[in-house]
Specification:
alpha+beta; Alpha-Beta Plaits; 9 helices; pre-mRNA 3'-splice site binding; RRM_euk-type; DNA-binding
Amino acid sequence: MAEHLASIFGTEKDRVNCPFYFKIGACRHGDRCSRLHNRPTISPTILMANMYQNPLLNAPLGPDGLPIRVDPRAAQEHFEDFYEDVFEELAAHGELENLNVCDNFADHMVGNVYAKFRDEDAAARALTALQGRYYDGRPIIVEFSPVTDFREATCRQYEENTCNRGGYCNFMHLKPISRELRKKLFGRYKRRERSRSPRRDRGDRGDRGDRRERDRDWDRGDRDRGRGRSRSRSRERGGGDRRRETSEERRAKIAAWNTERDGSAGGGGGGGW
């Protein structure tokens, strides 16, 4: 009996536990679902619900009452700015294996950001650090997620451009990032692996010191490459040498906005980046 229950757990045959919550960490029925949502108390994956605000979905209305058209290239650059900001913030707490942003339209999935760390301790540190904070003036809603295998959570038809459910599909439609940005962000871990020093066996204290030093070196390199990427993209759009804001500048601007907002509200409200 126990083997049978284990074999159907989280599947459509399971009449007790919600298979959608188990697979994608979200359910269109929410708390009204007739099946249980077993929320993990610890996981390598955290979910930041409805965090990404897609400019294509939030475009202001024009004089004709229709949404103003947003340039898809500008929208992709907006997304990659957001992606880089979130990655840099989370990477301070541990090594990231996956950072995925949903392109779905349904309320329970729109703008969902899933971050899977290499270990549960890093995920716990990130969750604690994000609680009570803001991004772009909006509170961050963060929780542990049961999703650990994104292959099971992702819509295969979407990846093949054949999904007929569109943005209201109940499986993840993940927004892609450029190969250049992926190499820049996730490539750091390969570089650290190659550059590990034999001194790391001196103990945790020495390892942490070496790691912090390598992180600072990498961060300086990232900022330099980020500025180069901004200039090249600006030239492609015909903008001459105009430079896009770096992640640090954007985080400083958002933090200043939150400080001003909290001050006008009489204090409280959490921090932002």
